[in-house]
Amino acid sequence: MPELSHRRRLLVLAICCMSLLIVSLDNTVLNVALPSVQRELHASVSGLQWTIDAYTLVLASLLMLSGSMADRLGRRRVFLAGLVVFSLGSLLCSLAPGLEWLVVFRMVQAVGGSMLNPVAMSIITNTFTEPRERARAIGVWGGVVGISMAAGPIVGGLLVESVGWRSIFWINVPIGALALFLTLRYVPESRAPRPRRADPVGQLLVIALFGSLTYAIIEAPDAGWLSAEILTFALVALAALAGLVGYERRRRDPLIDLRFFHSAPFSGATVVAVCAFASLAGFLFMNTLYLQNIRGLSALEAGLYMLPMAGMTLLFAPLSGRLVGSRGPRLPLLLAGCAMGASGLLFAAFDAAADNALLFTGYVLFGVGFGLVNAPITNTAVSGMPRTQAGVAAAVASTSRQVGSSLGVAVIGAVLAGGVHTAAHPAHAAAAADFVAAARPAWWILTGCAAAILLLGALTTGRWARATARHTAALFDEEPARGQPSATTGA
What we know:
Blueprint: H1 6-41, H2 45-73, H3 75-94, H4 99-114, H5 117-127, H6 131-162, H7 167-170, H8 172-186, H9 200-223, H10 228-248, H11 264-294, H12 299-305, H13 307-327, H14 330-350, H15 356-382, H16 387-421, H17 428-459, H18 463-478
Helix pairs in contact: 1-2, 1-5, 1-6, 1-8, 1-11, 1-12, 2-3, 2-4, 2-9, 2-16, 3-4, 3-5, 3-8, 5-6, 6-12, 6-13, 9-10, 9-16, 11-15, 11-16, 11-17, 13-15, 14-15, 14-17, 15-16, 16-17
């Protein structure tokens, strides 16, 4: 790729950040709109879960494939295709006549989304080649996530209140069209010098694993945890996992190189990503339903209530990046685990939902913790990895984030649905009490996720962990033919 001027590189960064903004904003805005979708489309709790998980599942399943396609076919070409598909999917979502169609069109959105964020990050890393300049560019990229977190509830509340829930999908179309025009005009084409070969079998096994596991969790409250349907899907998930492990170990260019997991920092970052984003997805899902369906707030009021959480995320995300740069990933991970754990305990043990002071304290603590946890994930995942493997390692961390989001909504929604189904009182006060009681186990689950972040932050960032990362890097040095020079990463 030819060397670009400083102004042109900044323009490329802005274009890539536009793609991240519409994808990130789409998720946070949708959470505020869930009760409106529920009322208009007569959706159950599991139906609402699928409107979110249909997107995150497809995204998680296709991130690695999209990254390797971009390396092979051209990053600009795949990025353009992603913008077209995502914008078209957004338009279709706004026109969905029923819940089933909305779920299908969310999957179309996700196909496009899988071609945007990881490919955009790859474009950035190939545009900003000087290490310090690249670090600043990635910092700007990460800041956009915080902006979407802060703006999402407010933007979503305003749109739902003034126009209706369908308008949350309209905003993606003009932004996508502008990004498409600017990409055609200003973003140069680039490819990997040695792209990885396609792995269709591994890709199908990943889809089978994620899809069957999520289906089993979401549908279990209705079908019964020990029903033949749920047990069948659980067995399919186990078989897909076993097949994936066995098959990927034998491939020259695997979709997921299992040798990465010899590195304690990498394994820890993968689990931390799942726990952190499961917590975020479950937190937003529970609180959106509680504030609007139980407290009776409007979509805008609910968005304003969650602003302290979003604001703390926006404030602490860049601080976490600076801490990682100066002190390493351990401190922000430990602080994140403590803050998110304290938030979960307030709701699980002290009924914070019943008191506004405790409620907002819980929101602030969660925002602080989530703001701190995101930056160390990618840093820890690539810690000690050879440069040729850093992009693939970061892409796996990005996939783990989406897997966590899917599991968070699936598990927390299943816990809520199971508790709410036992309610026998139609009165509003009784319904509120039933919801709070059903939510308590879910808050304990989120507290457990925070404890896992705290424990892994301590175990996978020390001297022993760094030694395992060096050992893993040596495995790739011994077999250079298997090294992946891809620069594809994700946010």
